[in-house]
Automatic annotation (TrEMBL):
GO biological process, one term: transmembrane transport
SUPFAM superfamilies reported in the protein's UniProt record: MetI-like
Highest taxon above the source species: Bacteria
Source taxonomy: Bacteria, Bacillati, Bacillota, Clostridia, Lachnospirales
Organism: Vallitalea longa
Name this polypeptide is given: Sugar-binding protein
Subcellular location field: Cell membrane
Length: 297
């Protein structure tokens, strides 16, 4: 009888736990379906229509995609996105890893350094973009400093078409690399010190310890940062829009989408751009998921 009561109590506890879980998950699922899935399906359908964003949608099949892939502005924007991605896959990741590696060996004041480096990440992109746009002003910005230091070879129009993309990317790097640093530091601090002690006993140099102990130990973190950077690079918008409005030399897929949707009243065409952006992001995510799965096997 007592055993039956215990089993009955366990059953009720399990039912209550399941009920609580459903009560938590279902609202989130409804929220996600309403604000993510439905708008995504609507965007997919809109990409197949001629639509100005307000009136009735006219179904035109794949015409928007045919026009898109023959649009030189689209190819230019896609190329700029890939350049942007290449910059962010090198500079902030290398800088974040090296500084994080060095900071893990700092015994005093590590939190202060980490907070200082992370600080730019909490500053609004709109504010930082406006400030750096003033720094890049050819008449009273950093050019004046370079002239005073006799560094005339660095004086240039930083936001001219030939320089705009890299100039804006450097500002976004200043904002982004502190986040990368914190992620790397969290991973580096989880490495078992015994692995380094064994490597020292074996006579490993600093570079060998980094190659055979550090990097393999934080492999998943490196993959996470690379995937995040690549997917984020396909949708980046804020700094470019604030500093150049996606002008010549700095047009990205997001700024092109924004202009077509809100200024040219071509919401259907803009939806096709969004579908391409999401598709590329899914391909990147899928490839890295496959790589990670194979490496785990």
């Amino acid at each position: 009888m007592a055993k039956s009561n215990i089993n009955h109590g366990k059953l009720n506890y399990k039912k209550r736990s399941n009920l609580i879980a459903y009560c938590v998950v279902i609202p989130v699922l409804i929220y996600h379906f309403t604000l993510i899935i439905l708008p995504s399906l609507n965007t997919l359908y809109s990409a197949l229509t001629k639509w100005n964003g307000i009136g009735k949608k006219e179904f035109i099949g794949l015409s928007n995609f045919k026009e898109l892939f023959n649009d030189p502005n689209f190819m230019n924007a896609l190329t700029n996105n890939l350049k942007w991605m290449a910059i962010f896959l090198t500079l902030p990741i290398i800088l974040g890893f090296l500084v994080g590696y060095l900071l893990t060996r700092v015994k005093r004041g590590r939190i202060v350094y980490r907070a200082m480096y992370f600080l730019p990440y909490v500053i609004s992109a709109a504010i930082a973009g406006k400030i750096f746009a003033a720094f890049y002003n050819p008449y009273f910005g950093i050019n004046v400093i370079f002239k005073n230091l006799n560094l005339d070879f660095l004086v240039r129009d930083w936001l001219a078409p030939n320089n705009a993309l890299v100039s804006v990317a450097l500002v976004d790097n200043w904002h982004w690399w502190g986040f990368v640093l914190v992620i790397f530091m969290s991973a580096l601090q989880q490495i078992d010190p015994a692995l380094y002690e064994v490597a020292e006993v074996e006579g490993a140099t600093t570079l060998e310890k980094m190659r055979y102990v550090t990097i393999p130990s934080i492999k998943n973190t490196i993959i996470f940062i690379i995937v995040t950077t690549m997917v984020w690079s396909m949708g980046t918008f804020e700094y470019v829009w604030v500093m150049t409005k996606g002008g010549p030399g700095s047009e990205l897929l997001s700024t092109m989408l924004y202009k077509n949707s809100l200024f040219k009243y071509r919401a259907g065409y803009a939806s096709a751009i969004a579908v391409v952006q999401v598709s590329v992001s899914f391909i990147i995510f899928g490839l890295f998921a496959l790589i990670r799965r194979k490496s785990e096997d």
